[in-house]
């Protein structure tokens, strides 16, 4: 059986905490029983520095990334999104969505997709609807959902305060765990509910 691959976008000031839960669950498969390859992608081969100060050397460059070789594109927040950057990543997200490959975007990355018009026809969320309406190019207010994380077809979105819900929604969209397992996951890692842990570790 071929192991699926998740491609993780890298850029300076990447918000480490927003995608940490998701990456661990994808790579280890500790609660799903299905580990994935996690491959990092940047616009150049140079290392990037995350918001938390980690220097990360990308595995590959964006120019070589093809949706057909991927099972997921993950876009974290970063300073560049609020500064109007990220066009190359929004273009990549469009290619993935057009090919039917899921895209998971959190925090500032949702702004980049909003400017590109990729949220206009899909259910989505973000930090707040006012955050998205402050950007030119966004006409998706009617599809905004006030929730911690939202699955809108092949697009998963969340705000910066919801990394656990972001992980849960993405794992759900990928079909990696049943809802009872995902609820236990959120109960443990968001709600600090120790009573849910047996259900989580006994999931598979």
TrEMBL record:
The keyword Transferase applies. SUPFAM superfamilies: Class I glutamine amidotransferase-like. One of its GO terms (molecular function) is transferase activity. Residues 7-171 form the DJ-1/PfpI domain. InterPro entries: Class_I_gatase-like, DJ-1/PfpI. Pfam families: DJ-1_PfpI. It comes from the Bacteria. Keywords: Glutamine amidotransferase, Transferase. This is Glutamine amidotransferase. It comes from Jiangella rhizosphaerae.
